Amino acid sequence: MLSAKSLFLEIVDNDESFRLFCSIAASGESQGGWENARIAALVPRGERDLASKITRHGADEDKHGRIFNALLKKRGLTPVPVPPDTDYTVLLERHGIGLAHDRLRADRPLTEQDIVTYLAHSRVTEQRASEQMELLRRHFADHPDLGRAVRMISEDEDNHLAYCHEELLRFAAAGHGRAIQRTLRECALAEIRIHRDVSLAVMARMGRILGWPKGRSALLAFGIHAVYAYERAAGWRRMVSLRMPERRNALGGPATPAPELA
Predict the structure, then answer these.
(1) pTM (predicted TM-score)
(2) For residue 176, what is the DSSP state?
(3) How far apart are CA 215 and CA 218, in angstroms?
């Protein structure tokens, strides 16, 4: 029976598919770490408390990248180049979602609108990350090799999502509510399309590595398109709602160290 757990176990049990999975994940997390570090350095002077949270966010993303690389090293594997059509973070930036890298490389302070754009982009992508890690935690929290990493990353992603909700609500109360809702909607509709395309590309490559029959690959592609159809019709709304989280000040402290995976 084809299930999320059986599918991921098949990917994990094969060195080449696991290598590709961890390489894609590590690259995306490391890119997120760089972006957050640059944003923290450019935060307006009146938002220094927010800057410390963005720094923590970036440190967490860097940590996640190191964790995925450590999982590879534990298996005696090295990272592979990330195929362009599977590079979620680069594709988001290329489609104008979030802050452009050219803007982040400049040494001009960000505006409040820039911060709103960053937080709205993060709220959407952290929703995706939180859901994906919750799925992995549900099935692999006790896995001998992946369990500790999955639990830590999932906890971090939940913190990131809570922080985005809290900060966006603060900016909404300060008069940015209309801009926040507009930006959230634009980000969400673009993200679900890019997530669909990346998922199709990743599954196609996994299918070639693992020798899946055409029928199985077609079934997985159908499932990805079905999820996109639901998200395009209504599911995107879960990415744009805002509510005060139970976890208040979720990024108010220092980042937790990566677990020892050796």
Answers:
(1) 0.94
(2) I
(3) 5
